[in-house]
Amino acid sequence: MTAALARNHAILSASSSKQWLNCPPSARLRERFPEETSEAAAEGTLAHRFCELKLRRLFLEPGMAEKEFKSRLGKLKKEPHYSPEMERFTDEYADYVQQIAYGYPAAPYVAVEKRVDYGHVAPEGFGTADCIILQGKDLHIVDFKYGKGVVVSAEGNSQLALYALGAIRAYRLIYPVERVCCHIVQPRVRNFSQWETSVENLEAWAED
What is the pTM of this model? Predict the structure, then answer.
């Protein structure tokens, strides 16, 4: 196992790409300091677990019994960072993903919490995409943000661009992607941002 795979996060992680793209030495500098956790980060991690469970039931395990779903949900509710509003906001995320998927005449391919590698763009780069939807020549990258301090835009978002480049490379033999749609779902601040671009534009950005 390489050092990069042993780490939970890549040195050139997608989530910190805005920083290292503007200041390349910062990527190595971050290695010298332990990762800090916060209440907000822990809350966001738990909210993502709610999102994953709800999408798994919708797309990956459609036969999941109601009893099983409620049991898994109940365990999450016992976590210390749980709050009742978390269910409502993660429901909005699940509904948003459903609208994209059900907008196609045939069922698309949906991946949840999918690791994507973009080492061909950034050495040893990888990250975890919240949701990937593929149908025909379309690729959707949907990212859930639980934070309410900073409104995040999908337009030109380097994190989503890297996820898209990794997904394009991973699925290129099955899906000849031409159109890429990136989405930010940030329900606590009523932010539902979209950015549509082409594979050619993304590859040109990566090259530059």
Answer: 0.84
